[in-house]
Design a protein that fits this description.
With about 210 residues, this protein is of the alpha+beta class. The chain has one domain: ATP-grasp fold, A domain (Dna Ligase, domain 1). The chain is about 45% helix and about 15% strand. It contains 10 helices and 7 strands.
Length: about 210
């Protein structure tokens, strides 16, 4: 788990290009943290998900896709991911990082941060959580975000683009407050195409 200043020193493949953009705007950031790609990879490997998912989709012929069958398999894949567990050590690492970032139900300087939202760097889809210590709701939101990689649309796109359903683990942003909305004035001030802002401040440069 990384602060944005720590993420700035990591390669984009581990933390995402947007994490670097946000780190460069540190005075505007209200906090948050970056879950590196390796944390998701550890979850998949620890639960033997690559093999389970490989077997599940082995009946699909990328050259001749039965979309009805594929859709049913995607529902099953989402259930497999959703019902698999992170190892206890990983859960505790997540809770400690959330608390250190002030996102486990209390924030810096006594400011309560009860709501957080999560999304992939460079993307707009979010999952939200109303958090109390130790942060179980945020962990559930993280799992929901990971599960969206196995929607029918996401899997079909990968099949069309790569001929397979596999994907690499990716980083996740956890940010204070409700999901940000585009703020044209902020974007103009920062000289960027899109800036996402909520009640806490700048929360996105996708």
């Amino acid at each position: 788990m990384l602060t944005f200043s720590e993420a700035a020193r990591q390669p984009e493949s581990r933390v995402g290009a947007e994490s670097h953009r946000l780190a460069a705007r540190a005075p505007d950031l209200p906090g948050g943290m970056v879950v590196p790609a390796g944390f998701e990879e550890g979850f998949y490997r620890g639960a033997n998900l690559p093999e389970q998912i490989r077997r599940l989709f082995s009946v699909i012929n990328p050259a001749r896709i039965d979309e009805d069958h594929l859709e049913a398999l995607c529902v099953r894949a989402q259930e497999v991911v959703r019902t698999s567990y992170l190892l206890d050590d990983a859960v505790q690492v997540f809770y400690r990082a959330l608390a250190n970032a002030g996102l486990a139900g209390s924030g810096p300087a006594g400011v309560a941060i009860r709501d957080v939202h999560l999304r992939r760097p460079g993307e707009l889809h979010t999952e939200s959580a109303h958090v109390t210590p130790p942060g179980t709701a945020a962990l559930h939101a993280l799992k929901r975000l990971w599960t969206t990689d196995w929607t029918f649309a996401a899997v079909l796109t990968r099949l069309d683009d790569t001929g397979g359903v596999g994907l690499d683990a990716r980083p996740t942003l956890i940010l204070p407050g409700l999901p940000g909305v585009p703020d044209s004035a902020k974007a103009e001030a920062l000289g960027v195409p899109v800036a996402l802002v909520n009640g806490f401040g700048l929360v996105g440069l996708p």
